[in-house]
Automatic annotation (TrEMBL):
SUPFAM superfamilies: Flavoproteins (SSF52218). This is NAD(P)H-dependent oxidoreductase. Transmembrane segments: none annotated. InterPro entries: Flavoprotein-like_sf, FMN_Rdtase-like_dom, NAD(P)H-dep_reductase. Residues 6-135 form the NADPH-dependent FMN reductase-like domain.
């Protein structure tokens, strides 16, 4: 029996039943043989980033968040695009990690799933590159028009999206294990 990779998935949306959350839940069901995937959707509960609090005793929720990232074999970030950018809550969560090395050389899968998503994906790639995370074109996925492509039962109505998700999962697995 092959050990499963521990994946920590960060959802960019704070909406309770967002398309991004449903998408990651679908990825979790598609990848149960290779990933032990934990979904973090607590961006809204993290305190606002304040460099003055990020020295000797950062807030406990931040320490826990950073530890989950450090302990994972790979990080999956799935986010919508808000006003041609990342949601503020996701940017806030990532900012709490800038003073650390938790993303340095960490394999990441980056999904932008939104109406459009081009700008948010570009921004997310730049941020992760700056933090020295490891990713490639095959572990980066842009899904335009996501609301019409996945329903509440996690059924995907788009065959191209299904194929792209499977390709993404395998590429992410390869990145982690090589």
């Amino acid at each position: 029996m092959i050990a499963k990779n521990k994946i920590f998935a960060i959802i960019g949306s704070t909406r309770a039943d967002s398309s991004n959350l449903r998408l990651v839940a679908k990825i979790k069901t598609l990848s149960t043989a290779i990933f032990d995937l934990t979904i973090f959707d607590g961006n809204a509960s993290l305190p606002h980033f304040n460099p003055d609090l990020d020295h000797e005793n950062p807030p406990e929720s931040i320490v826990n968040f950073r530890n989950k990232i450090a302990e994972a074999d790979g990080i999956l970030i799935c986010t919508p695009e808000y006003i041609f950018s990342l949601p503020g809550s996701l940017k806030n969560a990532i900012e709490w990690c800038v003073s650390t090395t938790v993303f340095s050389h960490k394999p990441v899968g980056l999904i932008t799933a939104s109406a459009s998503g081009d700008k948010a994906q570009e921004e997310l790639r730049l941020i992760m590159q700056t933090l020295e995370a490891r990713f490639n074109d095959d572990t980066t996925l842009l899904i335009k028009g996501v609301k019409g492509k996945i329903n509440d039962q996690l059924e995907i109505a788009d065959s191209e999206m299904s194929a792209n998700l499977l390709k993404f999962i395998h590429a992410f697995h390869d990145l982690i294990n090589h």
